[in-house]
Write a structure and sequence with these properties.
Elements lengths: L1 H10 L11 H13 L1 H20 L6 E5 L9 H7 L2 E6 L4 H6 L8 E5 L5 H5 L16 E7 L2 H14 L8 H15 L3 E14 L4 E6 L11 E8 L8 E10 L1
Parallel strand pairs: 1-2, 1-4, 2-3, 4-5
Antiparallel strand pairs: 5-6, 5-8, 7-8
The structure holds S-adenosylmethionine (SAM).
């Protein structure tokens, strides 16, 4: 708890006022990722490998953008920084430890941007959401990675949607997830999508009790790889169940 409180306090002054309410989610993620590091290791290695495989197909390596860079646990940042002229990391929050790490000499070409990538505000204004439209203005963009972000957009949107149900369309989460997918597919850069697409709550006899589509019905592209990610291993929340997410990588 002390480490979490210190990380929180160090991150607040480095974060835009509008995004400070999201710091607790990043600190919670940091805490759970540390506690579950053994069970998450394969998922993180698989994600890094998918990004490196996609990167290998990039003929030009000028600018790379990572969407949902978060704690940089599943992002091969050292290799990206070595391969590209510029690497741009985008997330709602960059925690203090990530900001400090990026001050090292080998990361001199890495930029950090805080941005809401959901497109929720555009949709709330009655516009067709284009959450990745801003990428058109990124000079010399050759590679875009969506790094275990998309299901989190669905979850974050879900929280806001419940509070603002009357003014938002019923299919808000599906529209925003579909807009992210079409933004990645339509633009003239190489992309790598890694996302968890579903989850199941499984009891100690291996019986599934609750399953959900994290893409809210939006159609994901064909995957080059897929794997299971024990987001909540047995013992993390209860000795009686675990929560397993299915992850895909498409590039
Ligand atoms: C599961 S984490 C991804 C892990 C990260 N790639 C890593 O290596 O640690 C999801 C990330 O998405 C970010 N995120 C969630 N909703 C977002 C939004 N609307 N806009 C930008 N980032 C968002 C969270 O802050 C978090 O860092």
């Amino acid at each position: 708890m002390i480490a979490e409180a210190l990380l929180y306090a160090a991150t607040v002054p480095m974060t835009q006022k509008a995004h400070r309410k999201f710091i607790r989610y990043s600190v919670n993620l940091w805490s759970r990722a540390n506690r579950c590091s053994r069970q998450w290791a394969d998922h993180e290695a698989n994600t890094r490998q998918a990004i490196l495989s996609a990167m290998a197909a990039c003929k030009q390596r000028r600018t790379a953008v990572v969407l949902g860079s978060g704690l940089l646990r599943d992002v091969p940042i050292r290799e990206l920084a070595a391969a590209f002229d510029t690497v741009v990391l985008i997330d709602l929050v960059h925690i203090a430890t990530v900001r400090l790490k990026m001050r090292k000499k080998i990361y001199r070409n890495v930029r950090l941007i805080e941005r809401d990538l959901s497109g929720y505000d555009e949709l709330a204004d009655g516009k067709a959401p284009e959450p990745l439209g801003f990428l058109r203005n990124v000079p010399y963009l050759d590679f875009v990675v969506s790094a275990n972000l998309l299901s989190q957009i669905g979850r974050g949107v879900g929280r806001r949607f419940e509070a603002e149900r009357e003014r938002m369309p019923d299919d808000t989460a599906e529209q925003l997830i579909a807009a992210h997918l079409s933004g990645l597919a339509r633009m003239p850069f190489k992309s790598c999508l890694v996302t968890d697409v579903s989850y199941a709550v499984i009891d100690c006899n291996g019986k599934p009790h609750e399953e959900a589509d994290l893409m809210h019905g939006a159609k994901v592209p064909d995957a080059q790889a897929s794997w299971a990610w024990p987001v909540v291993p047995t013992g993390e929340e209860s000795p009686d169940y675990q929560v397993i997410h299915q992850v895909i990588a498409a590039y």
